[in-house]
Specification:
Layout: H1 2-21, H2 30-42, H3 44-55, H4 57-65, H5 67-79, H6 81-90, H7 94-103, H8 105-117, H9 119-129, H10 132-142, H11 145-159, H12 162-189
Helix pairs in contact: 1-3, 5-6
Length: 190
């Protein structure tokens, strides 16, 4: 593979430099050189060399690093009709969806945290949650045995909290005092 790439590049160099160096009075113009290089690249060996070159990991990483081109290509792909069709089809594939979600998981979390701070987004979520069908689904979910167990554990855990115990004790004392006062007023009236 590297031999072919080296051979192709060496051949191009020799051809280009040999043509212009042998006869200084008669220089090969740009169009003739361009045609010669294009002809070489169109041969099977030229195509194979380019394919091998593009499959090389170091070349791929260099190509991928040119972010301006990638951004422009993605923007054009996303906004075109063919792009929209591609993405609709791609997101129907569970493997693609899983890979996509995994690759952007951190970015999605950050985006969701930012969106929850946005009043318009929160209003939209609230509106969505008011839909009758969605409310029915939530109600079904909340009535499941698993959720009932969670409620029970939560109530027990909350009741065992020292702060809650103190508050409950205070409320019970106030209620007992009020009940005693009512009963005393009722007995005074009699």
């Amino acid at each position: 593979m590297k031999f072919r790439v080296a051979f192709l590049l060496t051949s191009l160099f020799i051809i280009c430099s040999g043509c212009s160096g042998t006869n200084t009075t008669e220089e090969m113009d740009y169009e003739k050189t361009k045609k010669m290089v294009v002809d070489i690249l169109k041969t099977d060996d030229g195509k194979k060399a380019i394919t091998d070159l593009l499959s090389d990991e170091s070349v791929k990483s260099e190509l991928i690093m040119n972010q301006d081109i990638i951004k422009k290509t993605v923007e054009e792909t996303l906004t075109s009709d063919k792009g929209k069709q591609f993405w609709e089809k791609a997101f129907k594939d569970p493997k693609f969806t899983a890979a996509y979600a995994k690759a952007l998981k951190t970015e999605h979390k950050r985006l969701m945290k930012e969106l929850t701070k946005d009043a318009a987004y929160r209003a939209m979520i609230t509106e969505i949650m008011k839909e009758p069908d969605l409310q029915k689904e939530f109600t079904k979910l909340l009535k499941t045995n698993e959720m009932r167990k969670i409620y029970k554990d939560l109530i027990i855990e909350t009741g065992e909290s020292p702060l809650v115990e103190a508050k409950m004790e205070d409320l019970l004392q106030k209620a007992a005092t009020k009940a005693a006062e009512k009963s005393q007023k009722a007995s005074e009236k009699k």
